[in-house]
Specification:
Blueprint lengths: L2 H22 L4 H27 L7 H16 L1
Helix pairs in contact: 2-3
């Protein structure tokens, strides 16, 4: 195999792993990373609130559901 075909295979793999999906939702790699990291952060906060609520029902009564509704709206609005 020539170096050219290896480079082409490598660039196709990079595109498949890192670029194709962000492009499919009209974002750059870093823009998509920022969105996904922010989403993951708020999912973690919602999970923590749900865990606290599981042990002490009077705390965080609507926190997790409120965060999830907001995240759902963000996903819906961007498509």
């Amino acid at each position: 195999m020539s170096d050219t075909s290896q480079d082409s295979t490598r660039s196709n793999l990079v595109a498949t792993l890192f670029l194709d999906h962000p492009a499919s939702v009209n974002e750059t790699y870093f823009g998509h990373m920022r969105f996904a990291l922010g989403f993951a952060f708020w999912l973690g906060v919602a999970a923590a609130a749900a865990l606290i609520h599981a042990f002490i029902p009077a705390l965080c009564e609507t926190t997790a559901s409120r965060i999830l509704k907001r995240l759902h709206a963000r996903i819906t609005d961007r498509h």
